Amino acid sequence: MERLNSQELEELQKLIAPLREEMAQVVVGQQNLMDRLLITLFCGQHILIEGVPGLAKTLSVTTLSQVMKAKFQRIQFTPDLLPADLLGTLIFNPGKAGFETRKGPVFTQILLADEINRAPAKVQSALLEAMQERQVTLGDETHMLPKPFMVLATQNPLEQEGTYPLPEAQMDRFMLKVKVSYPNREEELTILRQQGVLQGESKVKSLMSPEDVLRMRGLVDRVFVDPKVEEYLVDLVRSTREPELYGREDLKDYIQFGASPRASLYLSLSSKALALLRGRDFVTPQDIKDMAPDVLRHRLLVSYEAEAEGMTSDDIISGLCESLQVP
User: Fold this and answer.
1) Burial label, 148 (beta-carbon count in 10 A; 0-12, 13-18, 19+)
2) Are 146 and 228 found together in one domain?
3) Domain tally for the chain?
4) Are strands 176-179 and 150-155 parallel, antiparallel or unpaired?
5) Which residues form the domain of 229?
6) How far apart are CA 327 and CA 311, in angstroms?
7) Neighbours of 134 (CB within 10 A)
8) Is residue 235 domain-shared with residue 161, that is, in the same domain?
9) Contact at 8 Å (CB) between 48 and 298?
10) Tens of pLDDT, residues 86-117
11) Cα–Cα distance between 33 and 16 in angstroms, integer?
C-alpha cells in the first residue's frame, strides 16, 4: 500500500490542529483523553472511559460529536434498562395488520453509553452485536447501522453497588480503555474561571463531517510500520501471556490471562493513528509504548497474588515495556 506523501500529511495537520483547539475550548486539561477519542474515531472502533464523576467524561464525548457534525445519542444505563430500550422493537400496526420496526437510539453514529456497567447482562449482549457486527437484529430482520458507528462508554470505578461487570467478550470489543485522572491545580483554576462563560452558548464549531472520518480511516491504513517494529509489537503482546520468555519470570505468577491476538491488531491500528496525530507517516516503538496501556489494561487479567500485593495490570504492562528490548 502506498505511503502518505508530505502534502497529505500537511493537509491532515491542518484538519487535526483546529479540532484539538476547538475541543480544548470546552474540555480543560484532558488532552490525553481527547487524543484517545480522536484515535478511536479515526480507527472506527470503540472506547471505554473510566473515571470518577466530575472529570468531563460525558462532556468530552458530546464535544467530539459536535466537532464531528455527527448524529449523536446518549443513553443513561440503569439496572432496569431493557434491550428494546436500546435497540428498538417491533410494533403491531392494526391498520396494516402487521408489525413495523421502531428503531432505538443505537441507530446513530456516535453512541454515548453512560455508566455502561449499570445495565444487566441482556442489555450488554444486545449491545455486543452492534459493536462487533455493526448491525442490529429485530425479529427476523437485520438492520445495518449508520457509518461511521462508534460506542463511547463510561463507567465509575468507585461505586460498585448495583453494577454489572462487563463480560470479557464485550471488554475485548473496546479498542481502548482510558483511565481519566484529576486535573492539576492550574487546570482546575481554569475550569473554575470558565464556569458560566460557556453555559447557554454554542459549544464548538463543526469542523469534520462523517465523510472526513471515513477518509481518515483510509489514511490510517497507509501509515508505515517497519517489520522490526511489528516484531516488537507482537513480542510485547505475547509477553503478557508468557513473560518468562521475555526475561520477566517474576511477573509470571501475577498474570492469570494475557492479551489475545486482537490486542496486537488494535495496538498496531491505534499506534498508526497516534503517529498521524503526531504528524508522521510511520510508527515508532515509542508510539507502541504510549498506546500499550490503553490497549492492554482491560485484556490482561491479573491473578489473586497480584491483587494481594496491590499490583495492577498497568504495573505489569509498565514492567514489560521497560524490560523488552526496543529495536
Assistant:
1) buried
2) no
3) 2
4) unpaired
5) 223-323
6) 28
7) 15
8) no
9) yes
10) 988 878 778 777 777 888 899 999 999 998 88
11) 15
